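Support request, please re-run this one:
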Amino acid sequence: MAHWNVDARHLPLTHGSSLRALATHLTDPLHRCVLLFLGICSAATLAVLPFDNHTGDAANDALGVGVADMLVTDLGEVASLELIERSRMRDVLAEMELSRSDWVDPTRAAKAGRGLGAEWMLVGSVIALEPKLRIDARLVEVESGRVLHSVSAEGPRDTFFEVEKELAFGVTEKLGIAISAREAGRVGRVATESFAAFRDWSAGLDALDRGAVEDARKRFEAALAHDSGFGAAGDALSGLKASLASSAAVRQESIDADMSDVLARIARYRDAGRRGARDPAATAELREVIGAATARYYQLPFSDQRELCGALVELGLPETFVMGEGPHERSVTEWAMGCTAMASASLEDRASLLAWGQEYVDRYPTGPYYPSVRGMLDQLVAIIDKEESARASGVIEAALLKRTGEMMEDRCGDEPDRRRSPAQCREWLVWMRDHERLEVSDLRRIRSRACADASLLGEVREALVSMGAPASEVAGIDSDLATLEKHVARKAEWSEPIEQVLAGQRRTVSYSVIDPWMRVCDFDEARRQLLRVQHAMDARNVQTAEWKLARAIGDDVAIEALGAIARTQERPFKLEHEVRSALDEIRTGRFEVDQARARMLEQYASDLDSAGLERMAAETLETLYTEFPDYWYRKPENILSRLAYAWYSAYDADALARSEHWYRVLIERFPNSSEADAARARLSTFPR
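Re-run finished. Output below.
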């Protein structure tokens, strides 16, 4: 018969030790498992209290909460251990009025354990972070209040997850619990290897314990920013959001039910007409309804406030039907009309504020709401006047013309492909001429980018003459045209060296053989001729010709290939030193052309905003954000912030809804940015 070894030193000294306690103290894991399997005793119940901070730095106080929660998760994978849920433990400890400093005391820990129904309490401390992370833990037997086991683990701070796993396995060993290979694998799973994520998650849990919900949310989001795969942080954030949404829904449901009842009773009084007004019972009921409505008035969303007060105004009650007493006495209609105007202002409903606000100030010039309502009306009228003045002054058209011209100028000047630049520049020339914005400096730039386009040069000359430009400017164009004409007149001679090579009359040619076509920007023909004659060139001349072609048409792929070839040569070709700057120039130019309209939209939005046309500015920024998500000149979170604020400033109910939408997009996409923090603060001021 097998002998069931029991370590007598660890048996509780109190009388009446149960079989469950016996199972816990068996040194042979097999025998303990037999008791558990036969149902003679159940799994040992363990509560893990938040660990204390002994590092000497209060900034580490929350780490113990995270360590405890990770241990609960890991030890919960062991079938023969029953872990007390963290939420239940928090509630019981709060009810027992035990502070965190009390938890490390074995006697108080045992008291907490009895309240939780636990057999064992695990208490401990984070001793140090540097030079090594060290965590100490003690197992307190609840029945006796004695510390029966101690466990310690240490290691480099960046391996905190390994230290925590060592602690978890140490606890099971001290409890004499045999765990299967599957359980060991589950306990050993690493939630995160990022200490920064672990720190923020721990701080989030600590904030939840303190009831600091917003701080907890920020911390969980920060943890996920460090490690997006940190499941515990993701679960905590999702749970927090679900809890907030649920409590808000319950509250709103209660408000909606009360609101529906109040409106229904007001409607019954209204439908009763004069009969209701003469009925003392109906009048008494109405007073009761008004009392109930005013009691919960400030808990209602602004839209419900306006609906309630509007319904009271529509009753047409006499001014003698008053509410309040003494100096606070006023008619129900006066109060309701003022509240309707104020709620309309909070909702930024222009039409409603103008209608109700004007009626209130005309009807109650000495009313308590008069200064506020009149101030809001004046503010709205000033906004409308500013918008109308801006439209009448032509500032919109002027801003659009200016920014469109700048966009076309960028396309002309930055286009890296010289084959396309004449068309881009001609478009700019025509547009500037048609809008009477053309200047001599513009024509100089177009001339430099004309790429031997005789037609475009002729248009530049014509524009210079019509503008009365200095004779030297016109003479410069004439010289360009004359040189181009002479060059083209000798076109038959351009291919002579090539034909001589092909006929065997000449053995070699240099890269300059393609220059005639390069001068007139016929780059496709230059390449065709190069292919015909490159067998008569040495490698260096071929590379130089290829380089000139690639630079002219903005072929960054060809330039990269040439740079790679140059690096393999015994005496690196000079292209090696020019490759990077050429690539930067081409890609920057191409990017500038692609981004020209995006930059135009941003600058145009700034012009509109300066003119007080916030709604148009917001619509322009909305186009910028949706059509150019890779806009380079501003961070997307910055554009989103400006977009949301522009809608917010537009003073319009629809604009306010769109502002809220974009603020929420900003928070969702960039939760840890400073713009998101500002967005949360702004949203807290929005009308409900």
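The two ends are 75 Å apart (CA to CA). Confidence is low (pLDDT under 50) at residues 1-30, 32-41.
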